[in-house]
Give the backbone structure.
Amino acid sequence: MRTATSDERGNVMVMFGFAVVPVIGLTGATIDYSRATNVRQVLNAAVDSAALMGARDAAKLSDTQVRDRINTWVKANLHGDAASKFTSATIGIDRVARIITVEAQLAIDTSLTRLIGQDAVTVRSKSQSTWGTNTIELALALDNTGSMASSNKMTALKAASLDLIQIMKDATMATDQIKISVVPFATQVKVATTLKDESWLRFDQTKQSCKTDKWGNQTCTQIPITKSTWTGCISDRDQPNDVKDNEAVGSYATLYPADFCAQSTLAPILPLTSDWTALTNAINSMTPIGNTNVTIGANWGMATLTPGVPFPEARPFTTPRLSKYMILLTDGDNTQNRFTTNGSQIDARTTLACQTAKTAGIKVYTVRVINGDRTLLQNCATDPSMYYEVSSASQLTPVFQQIAREISQVRLTQ
């Protein structure tokens, strides 16, 4: 005979059975959520790498081939249930903007969560990548002072620079996509004498010339620079313009002072160009001579990257997909500019020149070769990771290779 007590126990068991289902379901949800998180991480990695791979091949493959390769790559980087569930990704290819977008999703079967009515968990991933390289303008502002003749530094600098130029050449996929300028500097810079009639130049510098007669009496006179005697050297502009770059030069204080050459063999500036032979020749022509004025190197590196005078080759900063870079390299402390031999005063001008470049939108790399003001160069760099220091000239080539690849490599854009 069934008693009241046994009926009550039966009811409790039934009620417990109903109650335990959601508890088990919620426990299962935690487990399934963890599984879904792991699958999402795997899917993210697969989609990211497939987007990059597709971007690298987009220039040489058709849209159909790119899509097939991306789908194959995603599936190959999945495993287990994720691989079996994957069919294809949604792939967008914009050949005008040079952008590939990859979206993929997977429905992961649940386990205990089924008890509360959820049979699957959907995970999604999206990645976007560009192919080729952005349009790049790069200034090489390179110390050509006398100290670069020691410890094989100039030889190593030439080799590293030529290697960088080759990397950038190999990365180029369209005419003028990558343009480079070379700015050798000492206490001055040098430009082509064919620019002597340019309105941004002024000819008012002088040098002292002294003669001693047979009685030992010395007579000194100030000789002015003229267009006919000028050999291309330019000194610092009047302050505060010595740390700026003006797209429009008009007033007297903004003009660039043509000067007598303190370093007669200083190599001339090569403005922005994609003429790889001209770039090679410019690097090979560099000769170490004279004292150090890092400010004028930074200022003229910036000048080659800024549209308008003194060089018209640079594109506007607002040009879509354009990146501007400067590599500023030196092996010594500031020792002399047009105004002083006080190193700390020149350092302050260098700091301002670097800041002007960075504010304009130029990404600045700095390289200290064995010697030089570490703090000054670290602060000149756009980011701490963009400062390099080498203790041996032989380390310049791998440093320049790293910078070149960083500038030209394909990157994920979101």
User: Anything to note?
Assistant: The radius of gyration is 32 Å.
